[in-house]
Amino acid sequence: MVKSRRAVAGLLCAQGEVLLVKRHVNAPAFPGYWACPGGKVEKHEAPPPAREAFCGLESETLAALQREFEEELGIDIYQLPCTISRLGNAVTPASSPRRFDTDFFRIDLAAKPDITLDTHEHLCMRWDSASTFWAEYLAGDLLCVAPLQRLLEQLSTQPDATMVPGLGHRPGRELGLDLVEPLHGLRILPLRSNTLPPATHTNCFILGDTPANTVLVDPSPGSPEVYAQLTGFLDSWGQPSSIFITHHHPDHHERAPQLARELGVPLQMSAATRANIDRRWGPSYLEGIDIQLLGDGDTLCTWKAQPVRLIAVPGHDNGHMALMPDSAHWMIVGDLYQGVGTVVIGRPEGNMGEYFASLRKVIALRPGVTVPSHGIALPGTLQVERTLQHRQQREDRIRSLHEQGHDVDAILAREYAQVPKALWPLARMNIEGHLEKIDAERM
Predict the structure, then answer these.
(1) 324 with 301: CB under 8 angstroms?
(2) Which residues contact 145 (CB under 8 A, 6 or more apart)?
(3) Is 205 helix (H, G, I), strand (E, B) or coil?
(4) How large is the average pLDDT for residues 39-57?
(5) Is the pLDDT of residue 235 over 80?
(6) What angle do CA 286, 287, 291 make, to 5 degrees?
(7) C-alpha distances in angstroms, 153 versus 45, 136, 148, 164, 335?
(8) What is the longest distance spanned by two Cα atoms in the chain?
(9) Could you tell me which residues come within 8 angstroms of residue 282 by beta carbon, excluding any fewer than 6 positions away?
(10) Radius of gyration over alpha carbons of the chain, in Å?
(11) How far apart, in whole angstroms, are the C-alpha atoms of residue 337 and residue 343?
(12) Exposed e or buried b for every residue in 128-154, given b needs 16+ CB within 10 A?
């Protein structure tokens, strides 16, 4: 488990409105998310002399809050006529590669101050009522983390609230899980799985507008203990109407057949995924389950009354399916890119040429948010574009080395020198995939 860092965040309130900032797309944590200004508490933070309005605040916390607001907004809260209230605390889920133990504060001002936004840190800022921001979140138009969602929800009905109970609560936490919903209705339940390192979790998705049309996507608990956590969660959340598997790799469906049998619900997948599972585990793996085969363009469920359709994205796996509502507000891209680690393109089901084509296909569809199977939701297609660029650069180097007469082993030693040798067999698959693509393009 990644250790959490202490952090602070402050919600500026003035004249019936609150200030939110949109984090830069290159920010190391939650890029492109709407947020409260703030950041990490540094060691040996030193605040100015205490003032009555700040009595009761820990000195390091006050110093961090003052420094972050000066750096990000160009204002000195110590010099402003304001009062500060501690709204609550929240800790980032254990599945996140970057974790923060954050104290949230409300900073009340009589008037809106002049602000100079640090554009290296944030893309933009906006003053508006908490109820307006909350309505945008409910419409699926505001990408933000759970604590901010709780703040906006509370302040939309109680604008003067100085404490938000349960600020850090997320459904499933009592079971050791954390359901996150970065866009309303896009529910993500990271489950510890038997996936490739450095990833430790696979995102399980709960989609659908109504209980009768709720789909559980890629449940893959990696142990009986995690399986018990998942079933305990479903006991309180509600049983899905079906289970969908994006592709046949085991970290996307381990124990999913068991769950389908116990719940008595259909297991849905593409025809290629069914064939791959039968080839790898035998027909008995899916015995006794209602298997429903779906393909490109089929509707899986609804989001905000819109059809959520399947989109074929082969390459990593020939049966790989992405999911996207008709509005293109978001797309679940599975293993097209990794929020943690890198994608392996290996035979017999992987094809590097198809993988490149699928990346370009997603970019052309321009979803507002992309969600990988391992990692957090990210705005737009920037990470998909970066993945394509990185792969192209890698391929160009492999092509050059191959033309110079280097074999696969020599290319592996050069290209993956910084990668642990335990992962070299996977890296070799990628190199072989690039070489096959290069040879195919010459024909």
Answers:
(1) no
(2) 30, 33, 35, 180, 182
(3) strand
(4) 67
(5) yes
(6) 60
(7) 32, 11, 8, 10, 33
(8) 77
(9) none
(10) 24
(11) 6
(12) ebbeebbebbbebebbbbbbbbbbbbb
Residue 223 confidence (pLDDT) above 70: yes
Residue in 190, 208, 305 with CA at minimum distance from that of residue 265? 208
Q: Report CA-CA distances (Å) from 314 to 27, 140, 218, 232.
A: 30, 28, 17, 34
Cα–Cα nearest to 64, from 78, 79, 51, 52:
78
- Rounded Cα gap, residues 408 and 178, in angstroms: 42
H helix count then E strand count, the chain: 10, 20
- At a CB cut-off of 8 Å and minimum separation 6, what does 176 contact? 229
Indicate the average pLDDT of the chain.
93
Question: Hey, what amino acid is at 439?
Answer: D
Tell me the sheet residues that pair with 151: none
Residue pair 296/324 in contact (Cβ under 8 Å)? The answer is no
Sign of CA pseudo-dihedral 340, 344, 349, 351: positive
Mean pLDDT of 356-372: 98
Q: How many residues does the chain have?
A: 443
The tokens for 66 are: 């003052």
63 vs 144: CA distance, rounded Å: 25
Residue with tokens 């893959």: 220
Q: What is the pLDDT of residue 197?
A: 86
Report CA-CA distances (Å) from 308 to 80, 160, 241, 247, 271. 49, 39, 15, 17, 19
To the nearest 10°, report the CA torsion of 91, 373, 426, 389: -100
Cut 0.85: pTM above it: yes
Q: What is the pLDDT of residues 265-307, one digit of tens each?
A: 999 999 999 999 999 999 899 999 999 999 999 999 999 999 9
Give the span between the Cα atoms of 300 and 318, in whole angstroms. Answer: 19
pLDDT, mean of residues 349-370? 97
Return the pLDDT at 47: 60
CA dist 221 and 244 (Å) reads 15
Q: If you search the block for the tokens 């200004």, which residue do you land on? A: 37
| Average pLDDT of span 50-64 | 67
